[in-house]
Write a structure and sequence with these properties.
Elements lengths: L1 H42 L32 E5 L8 E16 L4 E12 L9 E3 L2 E2 L5 E4 L5 E2 L5 E12 L11 E10 L7 E5 L5 E2 L9 E14 L14 E12 L2 H20 L9 H23 L10 H27 L4 H32 L1
Parallel strand pairs: 2-10, 2-11
Antiparallel strand pairs: 1-12, 2-3, 3-8, 4-9, 5-8, 6-8, 7-8, 9-13, 12-13
Length: about 375
């Protein structure tokens, strides 16, 4: 009787331990799902890059005030240009990019080399007070005109072209890293003449980018040239009698780029999957190899931490979780569950009973299937939803 009673107690204890592991695993996944939901809703930036004002490397507004007024620390906004005033001089403007280099997400900056041309009729020279509102280090910006004086075309309009090269800033949105898409733009406007006097009109026909233009680690999707009006929330000390002098014409050239899928699969996801597979090796080991069954997921946990640190070092300090962070959070849950399973089942093996060994093998198979399903389903959910 004592022997039967002891076996019954052992079975009951093992059953409770199995249920505890299963419940703990499910609770961990639920907590992870809630945390990812909150991070996606509360910590992920929702501002559109094209609608946000340009920021400098330090994070403060870098939009320059008109040259006719002192600089001021004011917010500003861009909106599509709807109509051109009859009193405004229209300048047909195009941009053709030839080179982009030193793309640095950690500082949100890049260098762009491009041609910009202007065709107009009127007395105002559109290049005289031209500025790039998202330019960085104006002293390093080069602007070389193609002609000493504007050329007169057969239709009576004036023409000038310039080769421009400089460093520009654009805040990167990394919530979808490494499947993120970025919009790199250059915005130009005149610092003296407001919207009712001068308008830059986009030349959609000849604008574009060189077929030789390439960015290592990125794919160029398309370009866009937009007519915008830039409204400053200040008149910069000018009297109200001058009218709406805080609205200026702006032209934005934008390149849409994205990281190739192969970068995510082969360089970031594959190493993590290999580490997870190594931790799953504990489930196929003989249950009597207790030390190895515990050591394998523990080693996988440490390796995962180092892998996460390696890619985080290449990213700027952001206050939200990127997509890859959420994938690693899922991997942590799976590895910790494997460690707990190995520790709890180690006590069963000490009894050296055949029934307990069979229960360990059965639980190992269940956990292996559960981990595989959770990994595949979690990856699909994170990539598609977030």
């Amino acid at each position: 009787m004592p022997s039967r009673f002891s076996r019954a107690v052992s079975k009951r204890r093992n059953a409770i331990s199995t249920r505890f592991l299963q419940v703990l695993f499910v609770v961990g996944l639920v907590v992870l799902a809630i945390a990812l939901y909150l991070s996606g809703g509360l910590l992920t930036p929702v501002q559109s890059q094209s609608a946000s004002p340009a920021l400098s490397v330090s994070g403060s507004p870098s939009v320059s005030a008109p040259a006719s007024a002192p600089a001021a620390n004011n917010t500003s906004s861009y909106s599509p240009l709807k109509t051109i005033a009859a009193t405004a001089q229209s300048v047909k403007t195009g941009i053709y990019a030839v080179n982009l280099y030193n793309l640095d997400p950690s500082s949100n900056t890049y260098y762009l080399d491009f041609y910009a041309w202007f065709k107009w009729k009127g007395e105002i020279d559109p290049l005289a007070n031209l500025e790039f509102t998202n330019g960085v280090e104006d002293w390093g910006l080069t602007q070389v005109p193609g002609y000493e004086e504007p050329e007169e075309l057969p239709d009576g309009s004036l023409y000038q072209i310039a080769r421009v090269e400089g460093r520009f800033v654009q805040p990167f949105t990394l919530a979808r890293y490494p499947l993120d898409q970025q919009r790199l733009h250059v915005t130009l406007e005149n610092s003296v003449y407001p919207l009712n006097q001068l308008v830059y009109d986009a030349d959609q026909i000849d604008s574009g980018f060189s077929e030789d233009l390439s960015i290592p680690g990125w794919e160029i999707k398309q370009f866009q040239l937009q007519n915008l009006e830039h409204r400053y929330q200040s008149k910069f000390g000018l009297p109200a009698s001058l009218g709406d002098s805080s609205v200026y014409s702006a032209l934005r050239y934008e390149l849409q780029i994205s990281r190739p899928l192969s970068f995510f699969i082969w360089k970031l996801l594959l190493p993590l999957v290999i580490v997870l597979l190594s931790s799953w090796g504990a489930f196929i080991l003989n249950p009597h190899f207790v030390d190895s069954r515990i050591l394998m997921p523990v080693t996988a946990l440490l390796t995962t931490v180092f892998l996460q640190q390696s890619y985080s070092a290449a990213l700027p300090d952001v206050g939200y979780l990127v997509l890859l962070d959420k994938i690693y959070a899922l991997a942590y849950i799976l590895i910790i569950a494997a460690i707990l399973e190995a520790i709890i089942t180690a006590d069963w093996i000490k009894s050296e009973k055949i029934d307990d060994e069979e229960r360990v093998i059965k639980l190992d198979r269940q956990f292996l299937i559960m981990q595989f399903v959770v990994l595949v389903g979690g990856l699909a959910l994170l990539i598609l939803v977030y």
